[in-house]
């Protein structure tokens, strides 16, 4: 039904449409209707970061920041779901309007600013949901926490979600919190990673389980900067890297309505740059740290592109705004068909 509903939703202010879509999905799930939209070929297990994923196609952070819609989203067939970004304290985010569609480019610009209900709310919602799939939780710092105290915010978030998460994502790459991207570089990154790994070891002993740490990076770094990040990730034993967050570039949207809005650009215009980052990191890391590929996945071909570039997993978000659950089904079907072709090509 999404192709029928989309023109109506696109007449609404984007943030309102987003909220109504999630509410509608929630009620559809309660009525047992989301099974009609569930993707096929969902059983394609893979093991990444020591975690058994039902399939390699996940939901990226940002769609459900607070864990309010976890049961409904999980019914669609994702191999994993990532909640957040969530901060230690609730915060309203940046002033509205802060979300813009660019349909001609299958793109979105957002400057949400980590609007969320706080980590304590998310913890309550996850416990209520009793979700049994693979769960990632994406954590960030509050906008008014100075950079020199950012580590404290990440450690608070990590402690509170550790028992519930299968993996934890450290978001240091959103362009919508002033100064946040500075945490991707130099001593600030080294100090943060060292603090996180020390706390991870302590929490693993406390809870009797090891929860991998993933660092989410921006697409707007040079190859030299990417190499420096890769060296830091390897040196500190980080478990995974998510590539990439949204971009500050406006390549592909110049001259379009809303194309000059401030914030992070996602969707099709990000596709090639995000893939280039995945490919570069894959060459640099040589399989020692798995990569989650994100950015510009709007069809099966763009998902396969990320995997062929070296990603072990992929995540969807902006493509879902334009394609709906059909996108997940299309990607999983293409992956299944690819596996069948490989199997058929193996000599008996």
Please report the total strand number as a whole number: 13
CATH superfamily: Aldolase class I
**Structural class of the secondary structure composition?**
alpha/beta
Major β-sheet, in short? Answer: 8 strands, parallel, barrel
Strand order of the largest sheet: 3-4-7-8-9-10-12-13
Strand content: 15-25%
Which CATH architecture is right?
Alpha-Beta Barrel
Secondary structure layout plus pairing:
Blueprint: H1 2-9, H2 14-30, E1 46-48, E2 51-53, E3 57-59, H3 70-74, E4 80-86, E5 99-102, E6 107-110, H4 119-129, E7 134-139, H5 150-161, E8 167-171, H6 186-207, E9 213-217, H7 223-236, E10 240-243, E11 264-267, H8 271-285, E12 291-294, H9 300-309, E13 313-316, H10 318-323, H11 326-345
Parallel strand pairs: 3-4, 3-13, 4-7, 7-8, 8-9, 9-10, 10-12, 12-13
Antiparallel strand pairs: 1-2, 5-6, 6-11
Helix pairs in contact: 5-6, 6-7, 7-8, 8-9, 9-11
């Amino acid at each position: 039904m999404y192709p029928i509903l989309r023109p109506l939703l696109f007449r609404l202010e984007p943030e309102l449409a987003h909220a109504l879509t999630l509410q509608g999905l929630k009620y559809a799930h309660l009525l047992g209707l989301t099974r009609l939209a569930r993707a096929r070929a969902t059983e394609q297990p893979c093991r990444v970061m020591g975690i058994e994923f039902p399939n390699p196609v996940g939901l990226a952070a940002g769609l459900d920041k607070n864990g309010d819609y976890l049961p409904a989203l999980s019914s669609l067939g994702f191999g994993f779901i990532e909640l957040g970004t969530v901060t230690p304290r609730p915060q309203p985010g940046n002033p509205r309007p802060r979300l813009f569609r660019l349909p001609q480019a299958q793109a979105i610009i957002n400057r949400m600013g980590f609007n969320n209900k706080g980590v304590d709310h998310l913890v309550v919602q996850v416990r209520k949901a009793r979700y049994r799939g693979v769960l990632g939780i994406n954590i960030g710092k509050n906008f008014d926490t100075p950079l020199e105290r950012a580590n404290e915010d990440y450690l608070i978030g990590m402690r509170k979600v550790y028992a519930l998460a299968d993996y934890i994502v450290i978001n240091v790459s959103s362009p919508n919190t002033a100064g946040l991207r500075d945490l991707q570089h130099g001593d600030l990154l080294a100090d943060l990673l060292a603090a996180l790994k020390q706390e991870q070891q302590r929490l693993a002993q406390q809870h009797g389980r090891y929860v991998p740490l993933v660092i989410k990076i921006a697409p707007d770094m040079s190859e030299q900067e990417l190499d420096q990040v890769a060296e830091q990730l390897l040196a500190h034993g980080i478990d995974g890297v998510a590539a990439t967050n949204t971009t500050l570039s406006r390549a592909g949207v110049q001259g379009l309505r809303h194309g000059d809005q401030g914030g992070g650009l996602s969707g099709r215009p990000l596709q090639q740059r995000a893939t280039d980052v995945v490919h570069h990191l894959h060459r640099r890391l040589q399989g020692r740290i798995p990569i989650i590929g994100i950015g510009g996945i709007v069809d099966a071909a763009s998902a396969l592109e990320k995997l062929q570039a070296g990603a072990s997993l992929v995540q969807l978000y902006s493509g879902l705004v334009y394609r709906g659950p059909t996108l997940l089904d299309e990607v999983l079907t293409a992956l299944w068909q690819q596996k069948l072709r490989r199997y058929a090509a193996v000599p008996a």
